[in-house]
Amino acid sequence: MVKKVGGLVASIVASHSPRMGVEENAPEFIKGLIDGLRELGRTARALEPDAIVLHSAHWVSTFWWYVPRHEIHEGICVADEAPDLIPGSPYRFKGEPALAEAIADGLNAEGIDCRTFDTPHWSWDYGCYVPLHYMDPASSVPIVLLPTVLCSDPEENRKVGRLVHDVGKDTGKRIVFVSSCALSHDVVRGPERWPTKERQSLDHKFIELATEGRVVELTAWLPEFIGTGVAEMGGRTISSMVGGIEALAQDYGELVGKQFGPYAQSSGSGNAHVAVFPKTSKGM
């Protein structure tokens, strides 16, 4: 019997504009992102993951990392900052309590304070809901979630992305890692408005470096992208995706990537779904 090799099988950034949350109400300029999430989900599921670990920019923790250890994630998602756009969408996904506990243990072992919980009264933010709603509409893959921690910095988040890969290897779990966030994120009023041309250029450079597997360049350039591009949540959430890419490169060497759907605007932010895989992955 061939032993299953665990760890990350893909590291992904997926956008989550609340205007995507209810498809029939989505404006035309955002519909390509919905289609892109569906395509991304088909590709991710084809990798036969044991779990999706999603790091949300809109589940915010001040001090500590948290991991929900629910057997079943079930509730109603309301976009608290835009309840007219997502007024109440039900969800039900399988959890992976053992993996949740293992991730918390892995972070704590490296001096990153992480706690678990299973209160039934907690509900998902739309950064969790929107990507998973379209990526896995049948709720076939167990879900583990991570918050964005205000007292962390981008370097800590890169480390978390790498540690999730290590935990996957230790547990034999194949993991699709998803950072749910925009690229540039200097938001303004007006949903149809684009980022500045300078920030669009930065977004396209990020996509290029990621999809071409240029890991060393991407990592070195990341602080500039975070600062000049005004990355969402101070670059914390996108940094975990880059950490995941670093972990893949260390174990597999050459990487490849793909953009799913268009690059699109939403209130001055730049949005794209980008996945990076080992070059040998059947997902490519």
Write the layout of secondary structure elements.
Blueprint (H helix, E strand, L loop, with lengths): L6 E8 L13 H19 L4 E11 L3 E4 L3 E6 L11 E6 L2 H13 L4 E4 L8 H10 L7 E7 L4 H18 L2 E7 L16 H15 L3 H14 L7 H17 L2 E12 L2 E10 L6
Parallel strand pairs: 1-8, 2-7, 2-8, 3-6
Antiparallel strand pairs: 1-10, 4-5, 9-10
Helix pairs in contact: 1-3, 2-4, 4-7, 5-6, 6-7
Write a short abstract of this structure.
The chain has 284 residues and is an alpha/beta fold.
Question: Overview of this structure, please?
Answer:
It is a single chain. The protein has seven helices and ten strands. The protein is α/β, with parallel strands linked by helices. It has one domain: LigB-like (Protocatechuate 4,5-dioxygenase, Chain B). The strands form three sheets. A six-stranded mixed beta sheet has the order 7-2-8-1-10-9. A two-stranded parallel sheet has the order 3-6.
CATH topology: Protocatechuate 4,5-dioxygenase, Chain B
Distance between the termini: 25 Å
Name the helix and strand elements from N-terminus to C-terminus, one letter apiece.
EHEEEEHEHEHEHHHEE
Beta content: 25-35%
Molecular shape: globular
Runs in which pLDDT lies below 50 for 5 or more consecutive residues are: none
How is the biggest beta sheet arranged? 6 strands, mixed
The portion of residues assigned to helices is 25-40%
Secondary-structure content class: alpha/beta
What keywords describe this structure?
7 helices, 284 residues, 37% helix, Protocatechuate 4,5-dioxygenase, Chain B, six-stranded mixed β-sheet, alpha/beta, two-stranded parallel sheet
